[in-house]
Amino acid sequence: MIPIANPEFGAREKDAVAEVLDGGRVADGPVVREFESEFADFCGADHGVATTNGTTALHTAFEALDIGEGDVVVTSPFSFVASANSIRFAGATPVFADIDLATYNLDPASTEKLVREHDADAILAVHLFGLPADMARLRGIADEHDCALVEDAAQAHGAVHDGVRAGSLGDVACFSFYPTKNMTTGEGGMITTDNEAVAERAASFVNHGRAADRPAYEHVRVGHNFRMTSVLAAIGRVQFDRLPEYNESRRANAARLTEALADAPGIHAPVEPPGTRHVYHQYTVRTADRGVLADHLEAEGVSSVVYYPKPIHFQPPYEDSDVTAPAAEYAAESVLSVPVHPSLSNEDVASVADALRSYEGGEQ
Ligand SMILES: Cc1ncc(COP(=O)(O)O)c(C=O)c1O
């Protein structure tokens, strides 16, 4: 069975880990600072703060923006639940806007309506499946309503919108380095921002509220231990080096699948709107009878996964919310992701393409 994800670690990652272990600084240390600095630089941001994972990166971003109790954050209900959980962890309330069914990202009109109705303090834009949200319009809404714009870029390392990379499209951005992601440290996360004060508060929050200009064991705020280890940063630096090649491979695989879907009218291929660069964290198709498609793919030796079968406002911790999101609900019923990752061989991609092409499901 061709797997949906297959993270690979080679001799370079192993050597980098061995070097850290031999050097003795296994927790926080200079390797983490180097990783932060090169990742932020790549995103076009002035500062990077590494964290234990993408969820803690998001939680930290809200803390650093001083968004908490009594505050409202408008976000997408069609995302991994961590997007909403991080808002709750910060003490704020998530409010769910609808998505644009073509891109699976926040619908700006629905977002603006809710920002206005709730006098929201922030928008959390998720760049789902590797495609940036419509950040030009979301930036306009955030500016007009004086609220912060946060990127959930957990799935979008290297994605581009209007010539700008994810990581510097909002006031703060958060990445995940979970194994299925475009680059991985096993578990890990990163915050990027141009705002020095936000970066300082984030770095302090992940380190028990210490401050760079205060002596050790003085704590200027309540903080957490969300620090990335040097062992993981060493892996991250090697993976980061490979990110351009990984993303090119994802894009090339995606192009072959999209070409195959031209012969499968019952299936909607992912779109790449003008001015964007999709990095295909997932290659996600949509079809009216996805269970039939999933069975067909399985019979052809191709695995598939539904990301995500239940919108967040249908999940028990969030289900009281008064939400109007028909596009998100339809997406949850009809999407299916198929393998697109860089470890696929030429033959694997051909098999996934053939399996899609030979699907004879109904028209939508
Ligand atoms: C959109 C989105 N947001 C947030 C997260 C949370 O990242 P992590 O699993 O590293 O905590 C993920 C990762 O799974 C994600 O896909």
Give the secondary structure arrangement, pairings included.
Blueprint: H1 11-23, H2 30-43, E1 47-51, H3 54-64, E2 72-75, H4 82-89, E3 93-96, H5 108-118, E4 122-126, H6 135-144, E5 148-152, E6 160-161, E7 164-165, E8 172-176, E9 189-193, H7 196-205, H8 230-261, E10 276-277, E11 283-286, H9 290-299, H10 326-334, E12 335-338, H11 346-357
Parallel strand pairs: 2-3, 2-4, 4-5, 5-8
Antiparallel strand pairs: 1-9, 6-7, 6-10, 8-9, 11-12
Bound molecules: pyridoxal-5'-phosphate.
Pyridoxal-5'-phosphate (PLP) binds next to helix 3 and helix 4.
- Which structural category fits the helices and strands? alpha/beta
Strand order of the largest sheet: 1-9-8-5-4-2-3
Largest sheet: 7 strands, mixed
When the domains are counted, the total is 2
Q: What is the helix/strand order?
A: HHEHEHEHEHEEEEEHHEEHHEH
Distance between the termini: 28 Å
The second-level CATH architecture of the largest domain is 3-Layer(aba) Sandwich
How much of the sequence is in beta strands? 5-15%
Structural Rg: 20 Å
Number of strands: 12
- Taking all residues together, what is the mean pLDDT? 96
Bound molecules: pyridoxal-5'-phosphate
Spans of at least 5 consecutive residues whose pLDDT stays below 50 are none
Instruction: Assign a percent range to the helix content.
Output: 25-40%
